[in-house]
Design goal:
mainly alpha, Four Helix Bundle (Hemerythrin (Met), subunit A), Arc Repressor Mutant, subunit A, 65% helix, elongated
């Protein structure tokens, strides 16, 4: 068993499931006898991986809706298989397929969870989305109809609001459409980007105006009149001085005091 020619070369033939299972047992026993890092160890390890690639294909079939990412799924699943080969301990008396399949599936699910979202979604919503899909399938079979949000919430031990949040937020963030995509609305023409609203720059002033209103109301009558003439009627300081019968310098000092009072009020 120590020679390379004694080990099945997967490039010259395909082993059946039973043959792969039996060969895997022999090879794992041999792997335990070899020193890690040696060419013989690496050869047996690589052959074990090739021998069990059918597990990756079997796991990938559980994700039929991801056909566009078939190559990525295969690569990620193979990483899971490699991890399973490196972590497997034959002494525990567990079949390698029983140990490896959850590891491969976990790696694929982690891939979708961490890389397939078009927008960042909290982990709790990602997990809730998976639980929601399972609950909908299970309840749908037992009830013979689509379950209500209340029934789903009861089965998942969460609130109806959390069910709605998991469905709306997580699903809408899973995929994204290009702004150059043609709008599918019946009453809309052009691209999606052409129908997006623009941010009104004046909206940023709303908070300031709401905060200023009580501060201005607390000012004296003359101070409010000066503000109205300067920023409402847009009079110059000289014109305000003529209206009040004072000097332009005096108006300048009054405005500085009024504005300083309002600034302190906003900061407070």
């Amino acid at each position: 068993m120590g020679r390379r020619e004694d080990i099945v070369d997967m490039s010259t033939g395909v082993a059946t499931t039973d043959e792969a299972r039996g060969l895997s047992k022999v090879m794992f026993a041999r792997l335990g006898e070899l020193e890690e890092g040696t060419p013989e160890f690496q050869y047996v390890r690589n052959t074990l991986i090739e021998l069990n690639l059918t597990l990756v294909r079997y796991a990938a079939r559980r994700f039929p809706s991801r056909s566009a990412q078939a190559e990525d799924i295969a690569q990620v699943g193979t990483i899971g298989l490699i991890k399973a080969v490196d972590r497997f301990d034959p002494a525990r008396g567990v079949e390698f397929t029983t140990f490896a399949l959850p590891t491969i599936l976990g790696e694929i699910k982690r891939f979708f969870r961490d890389t397939s979202w078009a927008a960042h979604v909290p982990r709790r919503l990602q997990e809730a989305r998976i639980c929601l899909a399972r609950a909908e399938e299970s309840l749908g079979k037992s009830l013979g109809r689509d379950p209500t949000d209340a029934e789903l919430a009861d089965a998942m031990h969460i609130t109806e609001a959390e069910v709605a949040e998991a469905r709306a937020v997580a699903d809408s963030a899973y995929t994204a459409s290009s702004l150059d995509a043609v709008s599918t609305a019946d009453d809309a023409e052009g691209t999606l980007g052409e129908h997006l609203g623009l941010t009104d720059p004046r909206m940023d002033r709303v908070d300031d105006l709401v905060s200023l209103k009580p501060l201005i109301a607390s000012l004296g009558e003359r101070d409010r009149a000066i503000l109205a003439m300067r920023f409402g009627a847009e009079l110059t300081q000289s014109e305000i001085a003529d209206e009040l019968g004072v000097s332009q310098m005096h108006v300048c000092r009054l405005l500085k005091r009024i504005l300083a009072t309002l600034r302190e009020g906003l900061l407070a």
